[in-house]
Structures are given as structure tokens and as C-alpha cells.
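TA notes. Do not distribute before section.
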Amino acid sequence: MIRPDPFPQGGYRLAAVFIATAWLVFCWPWLGGGQIIPHDAKNHFYPMVRFLALAWHSGESPLWSPYHFGGFPMVADPQSVIFTPSFWPAVLAGPAPSMRLVDAIHLLHLLVMGLAILGFARLRGWRVEAGAAAAICFMLSGALTVRLEHLLMTVSMMWLAVCLWRLEAVLTHGGIWRGIAFGVALGLMLIDRNHVAYLAAWFLGFYWLSRSWPGSGQTVPLRHQTPVILGGITALCLAAIPILLLLQLAEISNRPSFDYEGASLQSLHPAALATLFMVDIFGPLDRAGAYWGPASHAWGGQFFVHRGMLHGYVGALALVLILWHGIGAGRLWRREALVFTLLAILFLIYALGHYTPVFEWLYDTVPGIDLFRRPADALFLFGASAALLTGALMNDMLRAPSRLSTVGSLAVLVLTISGAVFVGLLGAKQGHLADLGLPAARALAYSAILLALLIMAVRVRGTLQRSLLAAILLISAVDLITAHSNIRLNASLPQFYDQLETPAAYDHIARLAALSKATDPSGAPWRVETIGLGASSQNIGQAAGIEALLGYNPIRLRAFDSLIAPKHQNNASANRRFGTAMTSYDSVMADQLGLRYIMTGKPVEKIDRTLPQDALQEVAVIPYLDQNFHLYENRDAKPRAVLLPATGSGATPGPQPRITRYTNVVVEVSAKCTSPCRLVLHDFAYPGWTATANGVPVPLMIQDGLFRAVDLSVGQNKVTFTFSPLTLENLQAALIGVLGGDGTP
């Protein structure tokens, strides 16, 4: 039977203060030091928050964005933050929330997860020091903090911690309201619909089974399982519609699923396991330098993985406890630690992906895996498992100190020597053996100090023991903070991204925004394309309210991907891939899209090598930093709304239609037909868009594989296109489509 902590109240309050202090020190470079979280956190997620804020404060709907890839269903995009309530305060703060505000809210998720893990430890009856150790390792682990740019994965990890805490509360105490609280947390975790959330659901399922399994020694009364089931139903109610809308998008997107090769493309290279016990092993994390680790040019090959996806350091304390107490004393397989041991092994195997035969079996067997690429994402869950295993082992060590067994000692010795040889061979093979000195010295220093303090701590009691344990926690926090705070992978100066926060202050963006506001002959804004302007300009349309044709998002409509820009989601590069319909800037499709202005980072003839001379008119060359941006005009761009003969041939059946209302989710068009005609709106068709003519519903057709169209009779017609993805009709159609039927609403 687990004995209660001798100082449960004051001890846990003090631990909460310690966790908050460690969090503040870790976050200070961003909160008070002038840094911002870079890369995808700004290039992708910040414009999403800006769009949502602008829509909210202007009275627009955020369900559809005309500023992203020429028009995109934000309601179905798992990265749109529409269903992420923890970021709503930034949205409600004003139409243009600052980068620092968004970063501060982002970082608060780390604090919440640390406190939630502390609450979980208290419910488990762990010693307060063990709970604090688990919390620190959980919220400051390598995969989580090094990859802060992946904003919604941080959110998912926070909800995992809260779910674990609330699930333990239900299993321990029961109660309908506790079950509902668990369900709300679970629903909010699943609602972001990313790989980490998917794997976190596995984590919770395994933990629930471990607590409920007969003979586990942790008997859960049957009456306590009813609130867990109620929580699952609550989660399903919260997450079902967003998940269904995502699956509807996936079915007509460029990535409905991944084949095995695609799903395993970004697996964790086995050599990256060295990061589990040595920081900076492949080059410094805190400054620019030559990275020589796996999946880089130094290792050869043609596919390269971002370094942040290969870093799994959970701290020297975790390493020492797992080796010394877990393996050496044989405590990895005891009741309290067993589930976290198994989870750590499972997620590490998953992260290794195609480097093990297990992942292919999982891919073929487990539903949902083929929806995601990058098995290395499982490092997030490995970090969580290792952190909780650290807490469980420390608690076990303090409750029942044990001696190293002969077999355990030998195993630790073999593992230590093998690890040292492994690292040495890596360095020697790549010609970087001399560069391993500082990382090795750091690892040895932290490990030796922590091991010595742990040995002393288990031999004393009372105030001296608590002082030694406090020192261990402090050193562990320093270890993780110095390893992962304010490094070049998660911190940057804001000036590289200022144009996203204050786009009107930049001449090239201000000019483009002004031009795009001018309306075409039908009354709609002209579309623009930016290409080769740099990474922070990729989603400038979302941030500045410009109807941009390209953007930065891994998910795109399949028709857009094939007809307009195949595999072209990143227009930071000036290498434009044209589609089967938009074969050039001088093409019928480009004109139909109403693509009036193109701004490039180099002369357009170097981007579109088939472009006839003078097809575009260069109207400005705008200096920016050390380069020039070129602004071109396509004077052949067509109006957004046009009339075509119903037969497909013959004279234009009426005057130019006029768009009388153009919002994110409602477009009203006035069209006078002198003969039966078809009204084509050169906006993208998508499930959930419906049409009425003179107040009567009419079939919505797809013109040229992309555009919305309706057939009209002779006379004056008022046509209204409305995006209503949350109607019962569309949701039923989405469900039928997901189940393999005809999902046409």
C-alpha cells in the first residue's frame, strides 16, 4: 500500500512554486528577453491566429478564408486554431494580436502541463519530490521544447497532462463530474487533430488499461469506470464534428493518407538515440553551426530531416534513475513504473519508424496511422513516458531503497560502455570525434553529481534528505533549462517576422494590399501571388488580408494541387511548379483565377521560363533588405463572376454580372440572363458551399474542375453562394463519404 506523503499540503504548494519558477526562468528569453518563437510558429500558426482575430473583430466568419491558397476551408484545417480555446484570449484581445502575446499564451501551456503532472503525482500518492521531478522533465523535455514551433503539438501535450491528471482522479475517486471534466480535456486534446494528439490517445488508453487490468494491484471499483465511459462520450461529442470535417477535407485533399513509404519517411534515425543522453552531440543547439548528425548532408542521402525532430533529451536525472534504480536495481518492471516503461519503449520503437519491423506491422494493423507522416513525432510521447517513469522510479527509490543486483550492475556497465562506444564510433565515422569532448563532459558532470546526491539522499532522512532532494530538483531544472531554453531552434529576434505583425509598415506588402483591394469588373478583389519573398512572407495573405493564391500549408485541395500548383505549398522558394491547367502565368487558368498581380523575389522570366515577352507588365521594383522585389501586372485577368452560354457555345448571354456582397462565407451575385446561361464564380467549390437563385435552392456544379457554377433561367437573377459546413446535410454527407459512399451533399 502506498504511504501518503508526510507533508502533502505544504510540500505540494512549494513544489508548484518551484515548477512555476523553473517555467519562468525557462521562458524568460521570450517573456522578457526580446526573443520570439520562430519558424512554423510564425510562418504558419501566427497568421492563422491573425486571420481568426481579424474575422472575429470585423464580424466575419472564420470558417472559410479567401486569403489562403485562393480560398480554403479553415473549419476543416486542423492547424487553423478555430477549435483551440486556449488561444482565444489572443483572438479576443484585438484584431491584430502581437507575436509576443501569442508566444506568451503558447508558453503558458508548458506551465499548465507541469502543474497537471504534479496533480497527477499527488493523486498517485507519490512523494512530492518525485512529482516535481516528473513535472520538470515532462514540461522541459527535448522534443517538446526544442520543437516549440509546432504550436498545436504543445497544446496537445498540455491536454495530455490534464487528461492524465483528470483520468487518475476519476479512477481514484469516481464521480460523474470528474468523468465529464476528463472528457472535456480529452475532447480538447483530440479536437486539434494532429499526430501528437493521436498518439496521446494511445497513451491514455494504455494507462487506463494498466489501471483497470485485473491483478494490476491497483484495483479500480467498477462504479468508477462509468464516469470514464461518460468522459469518453463527452470527448466524442466535442471532437466528432471537427474530426469529421477534417476527414471530409482529407478525402479531397492532396494527402488523404500516406503509403507506408510516405508515412515512414521522417523516422527517427537510430544514431539520433545518442541525443537521449548527450546534448549538443551533433553540434551546438544554442548557436548556428555545422550540424553533422543523421539525416543531413554529412550523412549523404537525398532526404533531410529537421534537427528538432531528432532530439529526445529528457535530462540527466531521468538517465541516472533509469540506469541506476530502474535497470541496476531491477525496478523498471515493478507495478508503479511498469506502464511508463512499456510506454517509453513503445513510443521509441514507433519513433524509429521504418528502422524497425514493428512500425510496418503497426501501419498495416492500427487504424489512423496512415493519416500521418513523421514517426519521429512519437518523441513527444517518449519524453512524456520517460518523465513519468522518472517520477515513478524516484518515488519507488524513496519509499523502498534497494541495492544494485549483480545482474543489474552488469547490465548498467554494459549499457554505459556500449553507449560510449556507440557515440565514439559516430563521431569517428563522421570526423567529429574531437567535437564530442564538451557534450560528453557535460553529460558526465550532471550525471555524476545527480547520482552522488541520489545515493546520499536514500541514506538519510528528515530535513537533510529533503535538502538533498531539493538540490537534485534544482540541478535537474538547470540541466534542462540550459539545454533547451533560448536555442536557435526555438528562439529568434522578432525583426525577421515583423512584417507579419505590422504588414502595413512594409512598402511591398502595403502596395500589394492596396492593389488587391481594387475590385475587378464584377466587384470582387483581384487575386495576387507572392513567390520568393522569404519564409516569413509565405502566409502574408492571412496576416494582411490579401487574397493570395499561394501559401504555406501541408494540406491543399487536390484539384488545386494538380491544376494550379502541384506540391507547391512553400512559396519562400522562387522555384514555381505550375499545374496541368495553370501552365504559366500566361494561361487561361491564371486569367480565370483573376490573378492580377504577381510579386516575385527575382525577375519573373527566371521563375516562369515559358512566359512570352511582355505577357506581364512590370509596374515596380521595390527594394527590400539586400534584394529587390518585382511587381508585375497581368492585364488579361478576368472578373471573378462571368456568364457562359448554357450550351457551352455562342454569344455571352447577358451583361457582366455584379457581385453585390462578398464576405468570407456569403457571396451574392446579380446576373441578368438574356438566354439560358451558367453563372461561374471563380471561387473554389468545396463541400458545404450551397447556392440559391432568387431564394430557391439550385444545384451547385463544379466548372473546370475547380469553380462554383449554377445554371440560370432567362431574366434577372439574384444568386447567393453560402458556406454552411456545419449543417446536418453536409455533416451527413461527410460521414457517408468517410464510410466509403458518395459524400456529395
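Switch to the second chain here.
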Amino acid sequence: MTVKKFNLPDVGEGLTEAEVVAWKVKPGDVVAINDVLCEIETAKSLVELPSPFAGTVTELLVEEGITVEVGTAIIAVAEGAEGTEGTGDVAPAAPAIEMPLYGKLPADDDHDDNRPAGGPLVGSGPKADAVKRRARKRPAGSVEAATVAENAEGTVQDHQAVLEAKAAEAPASHRTTPARTVVAPVSEAPVAQAPVIQAPSAPATQPAGTPTAASRGAAISGTISGLVNKVLAKPPVRKFARDLGIDLADVVATGQRGEVTREDLVSYQAQRDAEHDQADSFWGASKKPQDQRVERLPVKGVRKATAKAMVESAFSAPHVSIFVDVDASRTMEFVKRLKVSRDFEGIKVSPLLILAKAVIWAAARNPSVNATWVDNADGNGNAEIQVKHYMNLGIAAATPRGLMVPNIKDAQDLSLKELALALNELATKARAGKTQPAEMQGGSLTITNIGALGIDTGTPIINPGEVAIIAFGTIKQKPWVLDGEVIPRWITTLGGSFDHRVVDGDLSARFMADVAAILEEPALLLD
């Protein structure tokens, strides 16, 4: 009988430490290879560590809530029999799995009101004390509803409701479950190259059977099946949810078939009411000395990594920001037509989709916005600008633990329908905490949808390694002068931040004008 110890592995690029959040086993438990031992919190996400051994747990070497360095033994397992004295072999730390330096998250991603797939301004996110809920039950083989990038779904002003019979539609909740990544204990996770998909330029007429690379085709097929399977709930329950202003996708389903029940809605509403009650007591006892009414929150994990990345970006890349108001009325009409199109049946469509396509189109006309500034590129102190002839489009997304930015690889090769599926898949994974490290690396340009919270515009901070970021403000009706007449139109404001070392004022203005041109007239995408 051999007692082996499992060292804390490096689950992120350059990770030096992590906190043991929760043990999933206790001394005496029998574990198999790949059984989850514990959850750790890194600078990137919550990570479940699987066991590299099969045997009996003899000792937990680190208590919950303790931060330890990579390489520290955290658990002892007796292989083959009851835990007894053994050789004390120590399992080597698992090889590092690439993780992004920082991320913004996908916050949400719908723009029917303009809910960004990635949260509000860069560096901000949902409230830190979001309610934690049980994992959602899903029918076998189904994919969680895509609701991460809220920009891709709707907006605070609920434009879709106005455009479509003015039906009331509740805003999506921003409460999400922490991101979780399962780390392979003994082998490095493969980083697959995203296959190129050839697609015609006319988006709405894209044939359903367009040939694609095998792996991408399988992924899209799986996404379609998951997206078509909407949240299960009976009509009376759906009506009850609408009356309460609750998005069914945010409710934990406890029905026998994985459907949301009336009781689930009542429980969810009680959670929301509890939050409001907590707000009433937030200020604390006013008679206490002020130094006793200060809450101290340690900066760690995603927040620590994000803060470091934002400071480096803000003080290393000279930011310049410009803004443009856009009449997006035709984009709203186009999105409405796509929603009822047979080709897009079961696929979530929002103005974010059109913006994403516009950014790709405009970057091809202004290539330097799709680049990276590299210091000391030749080893002699000389810098260089690396222009990327591909678009790994990042969508900022907010999670309770911080902001992350997964990206769509080779987005320039996707048809409008394929891009819609990719956005939905990105949102689904981000909400479910299943975004893989490789999906948050190698981004070339980022969109942050701040319209989800009804924000008109902002000055986002550039994602490290990139030279441009676009903030998508809310779309709402405003008075607009057209042909000498003041009429109501759907107006949005785009805000762009650029690295002035690479992107001059003229280039940034031309790029923003090109993006605006597509939102004003989506038919230009057919050219």
C-alpha cells in the first residue's frame, strides 16, 4: 500500500498560488481517477481538481480558505487499500494549462435592448455578493440556454418588446454561477486550432447544409440542438414568470423532466426579495463608530488579475477614445426580420450580431486596428506592430467573480448565421462556467456591450495584447433629424478606445465611421 500526495498544480499560465475553496472529499472516502477532490480559486476562475489516483483519502493537508503555493501537497491518498503508512510518494504537479492574463465576461450578450455579452464598462461587473444557486438540471445532451452575453439578447429599454407588439419582456438577471474549469491532472489540455469556415457574404440566405470543417460542424450542430431546446416550463408557469418579471433561464429547475415549476419561481422571487431586504440594512447601525462599519474585502483571484492587467494596459498603452451616435433603426428592423426567418429559427439574434459583423467588416478596411504592439520584438529594444490577418473577436462578459473575454476564433470566416451560433455558444459556455482557457487567449479586438444596463456609452480600457475595443451603448428611441424633420429613431452611441501608438486619430475615426455605416445600413454587408 502506497500513500501518495497530490501537489497543487499550475492550472494557469504563470500561476503561483491558489486558494482551496471547498473540499469534495473527506478522510476515509474512496476515490477513483478523475473524481473531483476540491475546488480552488485561481486568478482566472473556480477550478475543480480531479484525482490522479484511485484509492482511499487518508488526509486533507490544507484547510478550506487557505491560500497555498503551486507545488504544495494538498491531499494524501492510499492506493489500492485502506490508508496506511506508505512510501510518501508525491504526485508531480499537473502541467500548466494556458489561461488568459485577464478577462472581461462575456457579461451578457444581447442587444435587443443592448445587453452586452460582456458586462458594462471594462473593469466593472455584477455585484460581488450575487446569490449562489444550485447547478441547474438539464435534460441529457442539452446545452444550457445561451444568456451570458446579455447584449446578444435584449436591452434595458426592451427594444424587442417595442418592435414586436410591445409585449413586456423582463430584463435578464445578472446573477450567474461562478466559472468552473475542470483541470486534467496528468496531461495538458489540447488547444485546438479553430477551423476555417467558408461562407457566402449574403447572411440571411445561407444554406443550412453549407460545408464546414468537421469539428466546427459538429460544434455548430450541437449548439443548434441546445439552442432549440428552450427552457422547459408549462404555459401557466411562463405567464407567472412574465408577471413577476423573471427570466426562466435564470431559475433553477427542479421538475422531474428538468422543467421550471411554479414553486421554483416562488423560491427565486423569495431570493430576490431577500436581496432587497439586505439593501435596507446595508448602512448598518449608525450609532457605531465609523471604523467599525467598514467591510474589508481581500483582493484576489479574478479581481486581482483584472486589476493588474487594467493598470498595465492603462499606463503602458496611450489610450485615445472617440464616440459616434448612430441611427440603428434599420439594424433593429433587420434583426426583427432575422428572428422570424426560417433560416434562423431557434437561434437567438440581437443587434450585437450585426455589430460583430460590422466590426469584422470595418477591420478589414482598417487593418491596423486588428493588431498588437510588441516591445523589444527583435531582442534589441526595437518594437514592432503585428497586424493580424484573422479576427479572434472578443466579447466581454461579466461573472460574479469578475470580467472575462472569451473570443470567437477566425470570426471573419463565419456567415451571419454561423456567427450568431458562435455568439450564442460563447454566451452559453460563459454562463455555465465552461469557457476553456484557449477560448480566452489570442484575442485580436474586443466588443463590450454596456447597453445591457441602459448605459449610453463609456471609455473602455483596451484588453492587453490588443489595440482597440468598442463599447456598444444601449439602443433606444430618441428624436432624430431626418431629411429636415424630427422623428423618433432607434439611436445608439458607439465608444471606441485605441492604442495611440498604433492607431492614429484619422484611422480610429475611419474605423468607427465604417462600423457606424453598417449599423445604419446592414445591406452594405452584402457588397
